[in-house]
Amino acid sequence: MKLVSWNVNGIRACVKKGFLDYFNEVNADIFCIQESKLQEGQIELNLPQYEQYWNYAERKGYSGTAVFTKIKPLSVSYGFQEDEREPEGRIITLEFDHFYLVNIYTPNSKRDLSRLDERLEWEDNLRHYLLKLDGIKPVILCGDLNVAHKEIDLKNDRSNRGNSGFTDVERGKMTLFLESGFVDSFRYLYPEKDESYTWWSYMSKVRERNIGWRIDYFILSKRMESCIIDADIHSSILGSDHCPVYLELDFYEQEDKYEKRKAEL
């Protein structure tokens, strides 16, 4: 199974910059986007093989997430609570036979950290939500998490220490989340690979010089780590200040374990 996640920073603008060329070339089974920045009816994407699920922010031109999937889900929900339609369109959960897919766009704590308390509350809510799902079946979390977890995950770690996305408390929340039973798929395969970034400032020559941050992730329930075939960062793909991240899984072993456990129950 091939999965892609991409913060497109405005899907309408990204479509004009080659989004569909990449979408068709990568041919993912599940493709997730963040920061769609539109309302219902403002775009029509012709994706004949895919079911489309959108979570729009109430505020126009802001936030928003979407999932395009070849595999029809068993159920779809929006927000952390059943029947909740959270106002910023930051989360979509799709339930499939053997796993949940959760696509998120984590709130930025802002340059002056004025939204940090709200961000930390989000982190706690997200962790509790994912642990609840994980108690039912494994979870695949993807999206823009707006945090560089370790020093290796951004170019200038010393000068950015304490800045939004690299505060000790934000990084600590990520550590706590991973230690509660989840694995960062990219670091699982490439624990020491540096200069692997997913976001670059629009400042002049920053992307060309690869002065970036790795803040976009695929994170899985730890018991799924044996399913990971590949995890990649498609940094050559333009169209946004973020680039797509890619995950390939082989579920045969996972399905065998699931059926065995089901039979035992």
From TrEMBL:
Keyword match Nucleotidyltransferase: no
Cofactor or coenzyme needed: Mg(2+)
InterPro entries in the record: AP_endonuc_1, AP_endonuclease_F1_BS, Endo/exonu/phosph_ase_sf, Endo/exonuclease/phosphatase
Domain Endonuclease/exonuclease/phosphatase: 4-242
Top EC class, one word: hydrolase
Cross-referenced CDD domains: Ape1-like_AP-endo (cd09087)
PROSITE patterns named among the record's database cross-references: AP_NUCLEASE_F1_1 (PS00726), AP_NUCLEASE_F1_4 (PS51435)
Signal peptide (UniProt feature, chain positions): none
Any one Gene Ontology molecular-function term assigned to this protein's record: double-stranded DNA 3'-5' DNA exonuclease activity
Enzyme Commission number(s): 3.1.11.2
Keyword list, A-Z: Hydrolase, Magnesium, Metal-binding
Family statement drawn from the similarity comment of this UniProt entry: Belongs to the DNA repair enzymes AP/ExoA family.
Identification of the protein by name: Exodeoxyribonuclease III
